[in-house]
Amino acid sequence: MAAYESASTRRHRAEEEKERDGEGALVRQRAKTGGVIRFKTFFLNTILDVMLSRGWKQVQEDSGYDVYWCDVGWMREHFDSTYLPEHVRLCHYRNHYELTRKDMVVKNLKRYRKEQERMLAAANPAPSTVSAPSAKRLPPTVGGGGAGGAGGGASAASAASAPSAAAAAGMGGVSAGGSSKLSLKVDFLPLTFKLPAEYRMFVEEFKKQPLSAWIMKPVGSSQGKGIFLVTKLSQVGEWKMDNRFTGEEVDEEDKPSEYIVQRYVENPYLIGGKKFDLRIYVLVTSYQPLRVWLYRESFARFTFVRYSMDDPTNTVVHLTNVAIQKKATEYDKSKGCKWMFCDLKRHLVSVHGAAAVDEMLRNIDNLIMTCLHAVQKLMINDRHCFELYGFDVLLDAALKPWLMEVNASPSLTADTQSDYRLKFRMLNDMFNVVDMEKRRQGNETRVGGFDLIWDDRQVFLAPPMEGMPPVPNSFLGGYYQDRDEQLERMWAEAARSRGKESNEKSDKGERAGKEEKDPSPHPPSASSTATTTRGGTAASSQAGKSGGGGGG
User: Listing from the earlier edge strand, what are the strands of the sheet with 89-90?
Assistant: First the structure.
């Protein structure tokens, strides 16, 4: 099957070809170091094992590295003041927090939803005789969720006419309708407020349903730290210490921490009576243009205690973070609390059928891409940067995915052997995508376990049969056992392609040398002209055939 190749991919490939010709900074740097990639990191977990296994050399200096697996603190403190050679790669974007800080992602998704509403309104102006739609009120999610996507009360017919507006907004021309195309609708985030700034709004909403549960989360913490459930307004009273409520001056150290409070999803999907969420790995190698890779395998994190709302204060019941579950008396370190996504998918298909699970997977794709589109224009795109995100997604009883948070530094420490194997392969494939060794052709839609799901627009594979719709190049929980064979085929195809390119350049050089030695003033004969023309046509045709090969 021929590989998909967009205009942006061709530009990226042209840059790689320059470096293969010896004009790139990485080629020159590798020549100085004997071809060894040098890396720097202070993490002593799976990422270190992966980089050493690739034959890379670890360095401790503040310069002279090709890859720096740094923490977000280094990006905040040193990135702006550090000179980086063109070939160096870093594992974070400068303002990653636009997506990974809990309050910022909520703010950006709300803004994006409003942009979608304006876009739909412009594409489908209401008749002057009709009053403003009553669906303007916020539903219990950040985004409206009707058949029209982000339009709240918009109808399916309205959504069907929105593609032109979507294209104008930079969505890659993705239609709001259709089962295979992403709708980019914001309907996956529970109703959320930021405290203490939006405390009064939260109180108004709380009083509408006083028996509902809410979950409090510090905006900048991880591993479940500081998270707790509230069922009474009195449990949130400590935030009233802030001078925005009292009017009094409060010392900076005495001010309450910033939290978000979200409507708690009280009907999670349960297996064996236990709650779980999904950790999904997403790699972004560029924001301008947006280029997104989704890893096929992931895992579900389970609680060790059966789910119940009888005790909202028991975090072991309600939070799936491994750091929290280790506190449970039932925790068994040898077994862990994770289940591979491929196994979970088989279970869900056996219970609900393939169609329902396929719809769930498309909704997860929509969740991921909507989050990334919401921050695309805000992100500082730098060619030195790439980022591996950990999306935490919760399924409710109806298989609807809900976004919990996005992690800029997903844990790479393994709990069990299967967990280590998953993370080791995932990180190895991530570096295959980033391609520091410059082995790829640049037009691949699959690299090991990573599938290219967006390259300036949604990526599709050719339909399996004539008359069928194209297939989205997204296979979360899909077939993964051929990973090693796929990589071998990809590397072999790339080597053959480079060999053909090298031979063509050598032939051109020989022809140019002969012309310099025999500068004949006489025009070539008709037969030689025809031969040259046919040869050029054949070479061009052959080059076209070799250039279209892909890695799956």
Answer: 57-58, 38-41, 67-69, 89-90
> Which residues, in sequence order, are CB contacts of 137 under 8 Å at separation 6+?
none
Q: Which residues pair with 229 in a beta bridge?
A: 215
pLDDT score, position 288? 95
Residue tagged 């020989």 (tokens): 510
Burial of 272 (0-12, 13-18, 19+ CB in 10 A): exposed
Q: Which two tokens stand for residue 238?
A: 């400590």
> pLDDT, tens digit, for every residue of 192-223?
999 989 999 999 999 999 889 999 999 887 78
Kindly tell me the sign of the dihedral angle through the C-alpha atoms of 465, 468, 469, 473.
negative
Tokens of 552: 């799956």
Which residues does the chain have with pLDDT short of 70? Answer: 1-34, 126-180, 238-256, 502-552
Cβ(343)–Cβ(480) below 8 Å = no
DSSP string, 490-548: HHHHHHHHHHHHHHHHHHHHHHHHHHHH---SSPPPHHHHHHHHHHHHHHHHHHHHHHT
Residue with tokens 């998909």: 4
Pairing label, strands 89-90, 67-69: parallel
Residue 500 pLDDT: 76
